[in-house]
Amino acid sequence: MNSLKTLFLCVALIAFATSAIAQTPAVTGAANTAIPAAQNTAISSNISLKIGFVHNERLLRESPAALKVATKIETEFAKRRAEVKAQADRIAEIQRQIERNGITMAEVERRAKERELSALTRDFQRAQTELRDDIQLRENDGLRTLAELANKIIRRIAEQEKFDIIFQQESVVFVAPRVDLTDRVIKEMGE
Fold first, then answer.
1. How far is 159 from 7, CA to CA, in rounded Å?
2. CA 158 centroid distance within chain
3. Are 53 and 180 contacting, i.e. CB atoms less than 8 angstroms apart?
4. Is 166 in contact with 52 (CB distance < 8 Å)?
5. Averaged over 115-136, what is the pLDDT?
6. Which residues lie below 8 Å from residue 191, measured CB to CB, with a gap of 6+?
7. 151 vs 44, 91, 161, 166, CA distance in Å?
8. Kindly report the CA angle at 155 between 3 and 18, in degrees rounded to 5?
């Protein structure tokens, strides 16, 4: 990200310097002969950049490849989610039993239910944490795979169409539709 900011800053400085040199009046005299030469070079070089932009969040949210990854992860963890939900339901049932019948239960029976509730709660919390961590790992793997695919497509587009810079970040304030390549990359991620 810092390298993109640095690159953007360099491009802006070059554009500013070119503009400033073009607007500076010619200097005459033997002592300043380097300045008119620099002006002539900058004016005649006519710097032209082809710039593009890709919106990362949209790629990871809307592309067919992203939707496939999300569906695959959901399917992969559906059984474990159901098991964790069943544990939560069992805990709720035991809590209701203790609240409803706790006063009339024998001391031994009430303590046994409380121990069972405590053990089930620990197991539930551990299972819930493991499930959350495993899902996070799979999502990160999926995001990494999607990012690699998107970057491959973006590089190919840049090389084929001779782009000088393609920005890929979320903190851009404005992007003209003519430089936004997001829809094209999303389409190619589905092929």
1. 18
2. 21
3. yes
4. yes
5. 96
6. none
7. 35, 47, 15, 10
8. 50
Q: By the 8 A CB rule, do 172 and 4 touch?
A: no
Token output for 43: 């004016």
For residue range 106-116, list pLDDT tens digits in order: 889 888 989 99
Contact indicator for 22, 42 with CB cutoff of 8 Å: yes
- Tell me what the pLDDT averaged over the chain comes to: 79
Q: H or E stretch including 38?
A: helix 34-45
Q: How many Cα neighbours within 13 Å face the side chain of 157?
A: 25
Instruction: Please report where in the chains the tokens 């979320």 appear, as a residue.
Output: 170
Do residues 69 and 142 touch, judged by C-beta distance below 8 A? yes
Please state, as a whole number, how many other Cβ atoms lie within 10 Å of the Cβ of residue 79: 9
